[in-house]
């Protein structure tokens, strides 16, 4: 018995995407329309099958976030004044101080939220953007999961900024003790915001297009 074309070529059947089916979904409200319509019937947003300028915005926000992330680690995050003596702490310096005081759990949280997650986001976003134009070993589904994970955990990088804001508002005892945010707090907040904008600028539909091109 003669097999079909897929058996002869040894290729997996192509995934039926909305683009192949002649459909386009609204990125604002999710309503699906037939291709050819310019505006969404529900929310009035402009309909685009693919955002071809997506990668340009991704890289622009990515580089902006990387530029401000460097001073966020080099300059002090906290400026503490106690009985006239002033000390400054960087992010890594604060982690080391917490470990010296036995607060290993808090030190781990700060290290993961302020060092591991931001660096991981930079690497993940760059990997996703590069995978659109180059062959990668990860499947399209795996890249989609990675994209959703980056979008979800991005906001949790602000934990360090929240801690600085809370301490600065609570510890204001004039000469006895006071805590003020350092210049690194602003840089770190900007870095988190820029990387979140970079992830949100990414059009995940491009992932599946790249997968189809590799399969072809």
TrEMBL record:
The keyword Mitochondrion does not apply. It comes from the Bacteria. It is found in: Cell inner membrane. Its main location: membrane. Coiled coil: none annotated. Keywords: Cell inner membrane, Cell membrane, Membrane, Transmembrane, Transmembrane helix. The chain crosses the membrane at residues 59-84, 104-132, 153-173, 179-197. This is Paraquat-inducible protein A. It comes from Salipiger mucosus DSM 16094.
